Amino acid sequence: MKFFIDTADVDEIRKAVDLGLVDGVTTNPSLIAKSGRDFRDVINEITALVDGPISAEVIATDAAGMVREGQELAKIHPRNIVIKVPMTEEGLKATHIFSAEGIKTNVTLVFSPLQALLAAKAGATYVSPFVGRLDDVGHDGMEGVDDIHSIFENYGYNTEIIVASVRSPLHVLRAALIGADICTIPYSVMQQLCKHPLTDVGIKKFLADWGKTGI
Ligand code: E4P
């Protein structure tokens, strides 16, 4: 399973790259706003750190506006920019146009398997089901991912599933068991994945035993 990091914080990206865990990056308008920096500057800097798909989201809500913004963003890097488009009728139109132009897309804010099917039919490179936000309203977000995975298998769609809105290691575990292509993970959850209390206890004991040898 590929790991993307879900952040617009360049320092976090650098740390995760050093861990060897980053295959790509996803950003969104809220994450860019949180960084307090210029959108294009942030995306530019990320392209220098990560040689993989980097999602940059459009702000326009009409297809023509999305296409204009996306075409500009796509110029930032010859192959790595992925245009993030919302799951709306206008977003599908834009996805269809981008697909014909060879521009990669990530259809975002997907909350049902049928939305994912529509995005794949429109030619999306990636779909992003938001599992955490579904959990927040009492649904099991990962069940939807399982359904999307079956639908894409049934019909041989090449669209890759990015499990998004990841809140805990359990989301990552379930994504891996389902066989989702990608999980986009906040840096804090990457750190949680690395940790196990028995690992810490084990290191402590090894060092204490070694200390007793007097070597
Ligand atoms: C995905 O691409 C989104 O940026 C992200 O996963 C949204 O996560 P949130 O629900 O924690 O905001």
From TrEMBL:
What residues form the catalytic site here?
84
Which pathway does the UniProt entry assign to this protein? Carbohydrate degradation; pentose phosphate pathway; D-glyceraldehyde 3-phosphate and beta-D-fructose 6-phosphate from D-ribose 5-phosphate and D-xylulose 5-phosphate (non-oxidative stage): step 2/3
Tell me a GO biological process for this protein: pentose-phosphate shunt
Cellular component, GO, one term: cytoplasm
User: So what family is this one in?
Assistant: Belongs to the transaldolase family. Type 3B subfamily.
Q: What is this protein called?
A: Probable transaldolase
Annotated catalysed reactions: D-sedoheptulose 7-phosphate + D-glyceraldehyde 3-phosphate = D-erythrose 4-phosphate + beta-D-fructose 6-phosphate
A Pfam family that the UniProt record links to this protein: TAL_FSA
Question: What does the UniProt keyword field contain?
Answer: Cytoplasm, Pentose shunt, Schiff base, Transferase
Primary role:
Transaldolase is important for the balance of metabolites in the pentose-phosphate pathway.
Record EC number: 2.2.1.2
> What molecular function terms (GO) are annotated for this protein?
aldehyde-lyase activity; transaldolase activity
Cell compartment(s), UniProt: Cytoplasm
Q: Looking at its record, which EC class is this enzyme?
A: transferase
